[in-house]
Every structure is written in structure tokens, then in C-alpha cells.
Amino acid sequence: MAKRIKKIKRPNNPLKKTIFYSYSVAKRGKRNYRDQRYVLFRRRVKARDGHKCCWPGCRCKTKLEVHHIQKWKDDVANRYNPLNGITLCRTHHKMIRGLENEYVVFFTGIILNKLKK
Fold first, then answer.
1. Which of 23, 27, 65, 117 has the most neighbouring CB atoms within 10 Å?
2. For each of the chain's 117 residues, which pLDDT tens digit applies?
3. Cβ(59)–Cβ(51) under 8 Å?
4. Cα separation values, 99 from 16, 85, 94, 95, Å
5. Domain residues of the chain, as ranges?
6. Would you say 41 and 85 are in contact if contact means Cβ atoms under 8 Å apart?
7. What is the per-residue DSSP string for 50-94?
């Protein structure tokens, strides 16, 4: 489903010509990638991980994606907690798709090792 974008101008104040964009609200249970909390979560995780893939032996610094260690839909309390995220390149993120539960302990260990340094 495509999102609708509306341009809203405020004609009451002629000094302000700022255009505000109104994005349609995401459906319940769906992620809103433009949500400021979600954007900040991704920025913090990437900064902590040095803007590179955390998979052992991978040095990829492009096509990075932030993966939720505990599933986004299942762990509502930690959706925006940077400790629940890890930076992966697109290749490794696709590789673990469908196997997320098997990698929870592995990714948690990687994050804890980073925090000890």
C-alpha cells in the first residue's frame, strides 16, 4: 500500500512559507520508518557499531541495515532500545531471515563484547 503525502501550507502567517509534510499513519503493528524514535534508534545502533557490519569477519561498510535482536513485533518495550539492535550488511541480514530466534544469544554476545571494550 502506497503512503499518501499531503503538502500543508499555513496561509495565516505570510512570513512563514514553510511547507509541512503530513505522512499517513502506519497501520497498527506496522513499522513507521519515518518515526523519529525509530530513526534515532537506527542512528545510535550504527554509531555504536562503527558504521560497519558486526558479523564476525565481515568488514562491509555499505548497504547496512539495523536488525532487532528480539523481534520488533514481540518485544514492544525494547523496540527503540539500542541494546536490542545490531548492524548487519544486507547479505548477512538476508541470511538470518527466518532464523532470528536462533541468533539471539549470538548477537547479544557480540553487543556485550562491544560494550566491555
1. 65
2. 555 555 555 555 555 444 444 444 445 557 787 889 999 999 999 999 999 999 999 989 999 999 999 998 888 898 999 999 999 999 999 999 999 999 999 999 999 998 887
3. no
4. 51, 16, 10, 8
5. 35-116
6. yes
7. TTS--STT----SSEEEEESS-TTT-GGGTT-GGGEEEEEHHHHH
- Closest CA relative to residue 41, chosen from 87, 108, 90: 87
CB 64 within 8 A of CB 52: yes
Tell me if residue 19 falls in helix, strand or coil.
strand
Q: Tell me phi and psi for residue 63, to 5 degrees.
A: 55, 50
Residue 66's contacts (CB-CB under 8 Å, 6 or more residues apart) are 41, 42, 45, 46, 85, 86, 87, 88
